[in-house]
Amino acid sequence: MRIGRVELYGVELPYAGGTYHLSGGRTYESFDAAVVRIACDDGTEGWGESTPFGSTYLAAHPAGTRAGIAVLAPALLGQDPRRVERVNDVMDRTLVGHHDARTALDVACWDAFGRSVGLPVATLLGGSTDVPMPRISSIHAGEPEEMRARVADHRARGYRAHSVKIGALDAEGGPAHDAERIAASLADRERGEYFLVDANGGLTPESALRLLRLLPPGLDVVLEAPCASWRETVSLRRRCPVPIVVDELGQLDSDLALAAGEDLADGIGLKVSKAGGLTPGRRHRDIARSAGLTVSVQDTVGSSLAYAAILHLGATVPPRLLRGVLDCEEMVTVRTATLDVRVADAGVLPGDAPGLGATVDPEVLGDPLQVWE
Ligand SMILES: [Mg+2]
């Protein structure tokens, strides 16, 4: 079974909530998805997606994702997609870094692997726990009462975990404004709900400590990605009374080994395209498991195909450590595929369909931007 053809598609994904606001004054209205189809000599196909969160979230941007795929795709022709680690060896030898570009190809190989043996990707990754996974909302930064309303809206749609974005600039009100945002977002908290307060690297140790002093006592939150560098995170960690979750800083295996070995965090945000696909993603899962770090399985953003990869990896995380999965599909207005997903009150699970369980919509994808064969 060999890869004989790689197709690259581009899809624009408008944000479903208008304008998304992140720390540091960053805003986003639409995202560019790179979707890849691999076709094998035995007729098996596989699909994968990588959608950067604009150009100001990680060291990735949509044109770079497409350019990286153009470098990697020719090297994968003739490779067996079932040998996922060896496919990643080829990508290592072809292009350093560029996890976003590698992700679409890596995920497409897992999808093809699953389709070829008639098993869901979650089974190939070790097997689904069959415990429904809470969905995590993504509450962008705004006025406190607006954020409270968005949490309530997601609560009404069945979300049991919420990622509340903070990181107000001084001109926006600084730590005092962030404290109001957090208090408002948790004002109607229900039993069993879980709140991540996510600064996306927008705080300094100084502003984070000021913020924590301004919070009403007893709020049950964890602080995600407070600072933009490891140095700042180490400094804050020594003085921070709430759990810290690493997200943007945890990109390499060695980042997670550092976080675990030096006890710099209590959990990780495991984003598939930040890790570089499901192959490194399962290592991050296992490092977290070995260290007792909690895990929320996410992606930077993305459509149905990215959500499918999240579901299959998330389902293999031990429930004791899994905090939830990001429903990125609901963050955007375009569906690239119909998914085999089981939805219950307690959460979501991938279905039993082979591969990612995704039936891609060719109308949405249109013609490929580029083809290699
Ligand atoms: Mg985050």
TrEMBL record:
Pfam families named in the record: MR_MLE_C (PF13378), MR_MLE_N (PF02746)
Protein's UniProt name: Enolase C-terminal domain-like protein
Family matches, as InterPro entries: DgoD-like, Enolase-like_C_sf, Enolase-like_N, Enolase_C-like, Mandelate_racemase_C, Mandelate_racemase_N_dom
Keyword Ribosomal protein listed: no
Cytoplasm as UniProt keyword: no
Gene3D superfamilies in the cross-refs: Enolase-like C-terminal domain, Enolase-like, N-terminal domain
Keyword list, A-Z: Metal-binding
Signal peptide positions (record): none
Similarity comment text for this entry: Belongs to the mandelate racemase/muconate lactonizing enzyme family.
Residue ranges occupied by any Mandelate racemase/muconate lactonizing enzyme C-terminal domain in the UniProt entry: 144-243
Protein's organism: Actinomycetospora aurantiaca
